């Protein structure tokens, strides 16, 4: 009992450290201090957030999956060079696009929605709202529109002048990474174990390809046996559309109970050994702290929403470009002056 109480105290302390200040001074380059804060565009582009939300709402109404795709786009941007819209850049003479990395190729989506938002904002207030802020706002609005929490987004990011396919290949957690590898990738970005579990909860919406979890069905550890942490009945159902070979692109809900609603069923599924990806299920099977967090979120949707919002703010504050650094792209797919 005493051990359980002390673990909860640790979790509470970690959760508090997940909450980030809205003000983030730029820490290098010798430029003037600059800050992220929710009111950044209140005078320069007062309709900015309204425009983002309306276009995201239209896209999600057209295709429910787009909500998850836009949240994932934000994640895959921030984990590479920071939240600087590098993931949006197409390949050019000087840039190798992150869109072609292993985690992103034939998988990352939502670029056309960002393009539409950018075009509308350029018309409303030219050369003012960054692509990086658009991606961040779109992730928040996507979450809220499908039943998840709403939070104030610190704004004022600027856009990168380059991309890093190496960073995209190496920094983004993969479905078959070990628990320690995933936790290390989070810690390298200043995120802790609470952030890891809370942000993984975004898998309560969206779809995943057969190729991302096939090894769990047939050969988890190289011995020709399925993953013993995967419910046998659930595994049998998955095998009907995810064979040993072929069907790589077949799609499956990450949360089979409520795949288009942002809720805590993702965590309930993990407890039932029905997490789709290995990187999901190991949160319940590989570490006592994450196991306890999974149980807490499964039992308390409000707590999950609170921690998820805090962790999204924290992730959105990973090494932003501010002040005189970077630029405001007029087209999110290319730098202004190649």
TrEMBL record:
Binding site for substrate: 173
Gene Ontology cellular-component annotations: extracellular region
Gene3D superfamilies with a match to the protein in the record: 1.10.520.10, Peroxidase, domain 2
Record-listed Ca(2+) 1 binding positions: 77, 80, 82, 84, 86, 98
Main subcellular localisation: secreted
Domain Plant heme peroxidase family profile: 35-336
Residues involved in Ca(2+) 2 binding: 204, 255, 263
Reaction(s) this enzyme catalyzes, per UniProt: 2 a phenolic donor + H2O2 = 2 a phenolic radical donor + 2 H2O
GO BP annotations, alphabetical order: hydrogen peroxide catabolic process; response to oxidative stress
UniProt-annotated catalytic positions: 76 (proton acceptor)
Site (Transition state stabilizer): 72
Keywords linked to the UniProt accession: Calcium, Disulfide bond, Glycoprotein, Heme, Hydrogen peroxide, Iron, Metal-binding, Oxidoreductase, Peroxidase, Pyrrolidone carboxylic acid, Secreted, Signal
Record's signal peptide: 1-23
Cofactor(s) the protein needs: heme b; Ca(2+)
Cystine bridges: 45-125, 78-83, 131-332, 210-242
Location(s) in or outside the cell: Secreted
EC number: 1.11.1.7
Residue numbers binding heme b: 203
Parts of the chain that traverse the membrane: none
Described purpose of this protein according to its UniProt entry: Removal of H(2)O(2), oxidation of toxic reductants, biosynthesis and degradation of lignin, suberization, auxin catabolism, response to environmental stresses such as wounding, pathogen attack and oxidative stress.
Family recorded in the similarity comment: Belongs to the peroxidase family. Classical plant (class III) peroxidase subfamily. Belongs to the peroxidase family. Ascorbate peroxidase subfamily.
Official protein name in the record: Peroxidase
């Amino acid at each position: 009992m005493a051990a359980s109480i002390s673990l909860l105290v640790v979790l509470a302390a970690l959760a508090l450290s997940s909450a980030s200040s809205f003000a983030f001074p730029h820490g290098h380059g010798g430029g003037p201090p600059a800050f992220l804060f929710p009111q950044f565009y209140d005078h320069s582009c007062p309709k900015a957030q309204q425009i983002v939300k309306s276009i995201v709402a239209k896209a999600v109404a057209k295709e429910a999956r787009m909500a998850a795709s836009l949240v994932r786009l934000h994640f895959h941007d921030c984990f590479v060079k920071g939240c600087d819209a590098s993931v949006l850049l197409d390949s050019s003479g000087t840039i190798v696009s992150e869109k072609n990395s292993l985690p992103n190729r034939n998988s990352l989506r939502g670029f056309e929605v960002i393009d539409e938002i950018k075009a509308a904002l350029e018309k409303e207030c030219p050369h003012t709202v960054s692509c990086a802020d658009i991606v961040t706002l779109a992730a928040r609005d996507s979450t809220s529109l499908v039943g998840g929490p709403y939070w104030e987004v610190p704004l004022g990011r600027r856009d990168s002048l380059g991309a890093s396919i190496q960073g995209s290949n190496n920094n983004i957690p993969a479905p078959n990474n070990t628990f320690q590898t995933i936790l290390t990738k989070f810690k390298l970005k200043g995120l802790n174990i609470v952030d890891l579990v809370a942000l993984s909860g975004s898998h309560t919406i969206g779809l995943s390809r057969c190729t991302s979890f096939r090894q769990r069905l047939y050969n988890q550890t190289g011995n020709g046996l399925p993953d013993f942490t995967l419910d046998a009945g659930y595994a049998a159902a998955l095998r009907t559309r995810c064979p040993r070979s072929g069907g790589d692109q077949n799609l499956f809900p990450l949360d089979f109970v409520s795949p288009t609603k942002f809720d805590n069923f993702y965590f309930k599924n993990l407890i039932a050994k029905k997490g789709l990806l290995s990187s999901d299920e190991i949160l319940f099977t590989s570490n006592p702290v994450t196991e306890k967090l999974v149980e807490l979120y499964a039992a308390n949707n409000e707590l999950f929403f609170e921690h998820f919002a805090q962790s999204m703010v924290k992730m959105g504050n990973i090494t932003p470009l501010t002040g005189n650094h970077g630029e405001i792209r007029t087209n999110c797919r290319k730098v202004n002056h190649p």
